[in-house]
Write a structure and sequence with these properties.
single chain, about 800 residues, alpha+beta, six-stranded antiparallel beta sheet
Length: about 800
């Protein structure tokens, strides 16, 4: 028989449920419907709703068997969710659906989508003759209908679709075997459709509740497991949520902060007023520009300390009637802040010494120049380089070299004003910035440079080794030398290399400095005053015997120093050239000769008669009466000329030979010994060597610099030593700075040497003590006379 189709209104839908008879049966149906509604309102599990629906349909509508099939979107089919009735009855009903091909389309989702048996929510179908269902090309409205109340045919079954208000399919309710054994009337079908509508609503509600619960669960899981601290604030800025990450981050317990003023946790004391305004604006939706932005601020730990955090704010309001909630997401950025600070520190500081690097020195220099331009003061920039630092690295290793650099930094820092800036340029080079220099900047720069060089001359102890180094300093001055940073750095660098090229251990100004020119122009008058007031002093550096057990002294080299009343002890490099370029050169030379002879006389009176050597420049030799003046001093003090040695560079024999050779011959005839100084330096010439008449050689210190670490330097030194021996003269090797160098020279048979490792230049009192210790004992033995032939 053909099937029939009709549509009924859905409770809660577009129209009311049509109930035509207010009979007791209808009330029973409504009570059943109410039970379903109550079940839905409790929002239980979906299976519980389906069981309530199946039970209520069976009991109130009088069907022995009720099956609820739920739609599965993932497989696009239906599955049995709930069955009310006996197993046998269920099998009969399911057999109608699955065992006979004519019923299969009702449970085929794709068939239902084509609309042939698609029954919208609130409609029903029943069939009497299964074999004659409505085909796809027949309009159901034209099919004959069966009268209600007729006897129930065993092949009959009722199917009602479950569709939500959004048109989404949820399943089908199938009923069978009415207890009355008759087909349902319209009222029963209305109630059945109402049950279907409420079932769809229950499913829809359960799905929505499940989705909401899933969202809430995920939300809670995110809050609980988030690595970021999360603090929720109500509309009065009170804390209503405090997740575990916030507990770990700030040290507060959740129970202790719930209900507290969030401002106390999110801002330091002096910024809480501003923080409260920001939070209040965000809660009032007036601070939209701050929402979602990352703000760096400080949160307050339980111990009261501030923790740097990155905070972002999110405002949540479910509906206009609900109070807004403000979420503060906190991320601990203390490690990032430390990394940033470390990177910033490394960008402007030397990691080894902690000193400012060149970049920061340049910034300080630019600011100092700007201040100097405003206040009219000067600025001095010093470029300092360590002498013989490579020897330390080669002998003790780079780790020891690094420790030495750190100690050098500490020592230099102690020689500067608080307003001065010391930095490391790189390697063994340092920068010193002297700022805000009123008056004579050259004098102040000289004082500082002398102090720095003096500090570097003092021995360093690295581990178990004593290390002796020196330094060379180049100085440029603003505004005389340059008015910009780059030029001042360049000029100071060039001046430093100038100081180093003159043997190191000294400072030099930029040669084009107007201030230096003015200073040098005033030097003659200062030198005359220094001679008159006896400001010059002599230091003596021993010539050491390597071949004598325990050491011994073969002679002393006299070295002039200027004890300046303002600048302290000045090395000859700062005044000798200026003296020789003026008339004061001869006066200074006479003072040195007079002082050396006077001291030799005092030593002789004590039974000490060391060989004393003087450094004489070609300028002094060219003076017509220099030799006679020197011999006059020796004679006036009743000294033996053979105890004196005049050290001359080879250039003294080659420059203005006619003038210098006459003076040399005069000295030789009188018995004064002559020695070639700095042998092996740039002026050395083997062809000239055999033409010169000299008594001794002093091997230049530069030849020993990289011995014994550099094989090439070792080979050159051995060749020079062989050449010195071949000349048949006593020779001294200068520049012994390490124990390894001393051992090397001893192994090579060298008997005489000089250098800081053996003995530094010393004032008269200390030199006298050395003489008393060593020289008298030497006189009991066959002495090693410098520069006479060695015994």
């Amino acid at each position: 028989m053909p099937s029939s189709s009709r549509t009924l209104p859905i409770p809660g839908g577009p129209g009311p449920v049509s109930i035509r008879d207010a009979s007791a049966t209808t009330l029973a149906h409504l009570h059943g419907l109410l039970d379903v509604a109550r079940t839905v309102r409790r929002e239980p599990a979906l299976e519980e709703v389906m069981e309530a629906v199946a039970r209520t349909v069976s009991e109130t509508l009088g069907f022995k068997t009720v099956v609820v099939n739920l739609y599965r979107s993932e497989t696009d089919d239906y599955r049995v969710s709930t069955v009310h009735g006996s197993d046998e009855a269920r099998q009969v009903l399911l057999g109608k659906v699955t065992s006979r091909a004519s019923w299969q389309p009702l449970l085929d989702p794709s068939f239902l989508r084509r609309g042939v048996y698609h029954i919208p929510a609130g409609t029903f179908d029943w069939s009497i003759d299964i074999e004659s269902y409505v085909p796809a090309d027949v309009d159901p409205a034209e099919a004959p209908t069966e009268a209600a109340g007729e006897a129930w045919d065993p092949d009959d079954a009722i199917f009602v679709t479950l569709e939500g208000a959004n048109g989404r399919r949820y399943g089908i309710i199938s009923v069978d075997e009415p207890i009355s054994r008759r087909r349902p009337d319209d009222q029963q079908l209305d109630v059945l459709n109402a049950f279907a509508a409420h079932t769809a609503l229950a499913i829809e509600s359960a799905v929505q509740v499940a989705a909401l619960e899933s969202v809430v669960t995920r939300h809670e899981a995110v809050i609980e497991t988030s690595l970021d601290g999360i603090i929720a604030l109500d509309s009065s800025c009170k804390v209503i949520e405090f997740n575990p990450a916030a507990e770990r981050m700030l040290g507060h317990q959740r129970a202790d902060v719930i209900g507290r003023d969030a401002v106390d946790l999110l801002a330091v004391a002096d910024r809480r007023g501003n923080a409260r305004r920001v939070l209040a604006n965000c809660l009032a939706d007036c601070g939209a520009e701050l929402l979602g932005r990352h703000i760096e601020t400080a949160a307050i730990r339980a111990d009261g300390t501030a923790l740097p955090v990155e905070m972002s704010l999110t405002r949540v309001q479910d509906s206009p009637d609900d109070a807004p909630v403000l979420y503060a997401f906190l991320r601990d950025i203390s490690e990032r802040r430390r990394s940033q600070e470390q990177l910033t520190y490394l960008a402007y500081h030397d990691p080894l010494t902690g000193l400012p690097n060149r970049s920061q020195i340049e910034q300080h220099l630019e600011m100092a120049l700007a201040r100097a331009e405003r206040n009219g003061h000067a600025v001095a920039l010093m470029f300092a380089d360590l002498d013989d630092f490579k020897l330390v690295n080669d002998r003790l290793g780079h780790a020891a070299g690094d420790r030495l650099l750190a100690e050098v930094a500490d020592r230099l820092r102690g020689k500067l004003r608080a307003t001065d800036v010391l930095g490391r340029h790189g390697g063994d080079e340092f920068l010193v910035l002297l700022t805000d220099l009123p008056g004579d900047p050259i004098a102040k720069a000289e004082t500082v440079a002398s102090n720095l060089l003096g500090a570097l001359r003092e021995p360093f102890v690295i581990g178990t080794s004593e290390v002796k180094i020196g330094g060379s300093v180049g100085i440029s001055v603003y505004p005389q030398d340059a008015t910009d940073t780059e030029a001042l750095l360049r000029h100071a660098d060039v001046a430093m290399y100038s100081a180093k090229s003159h043997g190191g251990g000294r400072y030099a100004f930029h040669q084009h400095s107007n201030t230096l020119g003015a200073r040098q122009a005033s030097l003659p008058s200062q030198l005359r005053r220094a001679v008159a007031q006896d400001e010059f002093v002599l230091h003596y550096q021993p010539v050491w015997k390597l071949g004598v057990t325990g050491g011994g002294i073969a002679g002393l080299e006299a070295l002039v120093r200027w004890q300046h009343p303002e600048l302290g002890l000045l090395m000859p490099g700062s005044f000798i050239d200026a003296a020789e370029e003026s008339s004061m050169g001869d006066e200074l030379a006479d003072w040195v000769a007079r002082a050396v002879c006077r001291q030799a006389s005092e030593w002789g009176a004590s039974g000490l008669r060391p060989h004393v050597s003087l450094n004489v420049s070609p300028h002094q030799l060219r003076a017509t009466d220099f030799a006679h003046r020197l011999l006059g001093q020796i004679a006036s003090h009743r000294l033996d000329p053979t105890n004196f040695v005049v050290e001359l560079t080879e250039s003294a024999w080659t420059i203005d030979a006619l003038g210098t050779l006459s003076a040399i011959e005069t000295l030789r005839t009188a018995g004064v010994r002559l020695a070639i100084d700095d042998f092996g330096a740039g002026w050395s010439s083997l062809s000239r060597l055999r033409q010169l008449h000299f008594d001794g050689l002093k091997v230049d210190r530069e030849l020993l610099r990289d011995v014994p670490s550099d094989p090439t330097a070792v080979a050159v030194m051995r060749a020079v030593l062989d050449l010195a021996r071949a000349c048949g003269s006593v020779f001294v090797v200068e520049g012994v700075e390490t124990e390894e160098q001393r051992q090397f020279l001893s192994a090579c048979g060298v008997q005489l040497a000089q250098g800081f490792h053996l003995a530094r230049p010393q004032p008269v009192a200390e030199a006298t003590a050395l003489l008393e210790r060593f020289l008298i004992a030497d006189r009991r033995d066959a002495p090693v006379a410098w520069p006479a032939a060695a015994a």
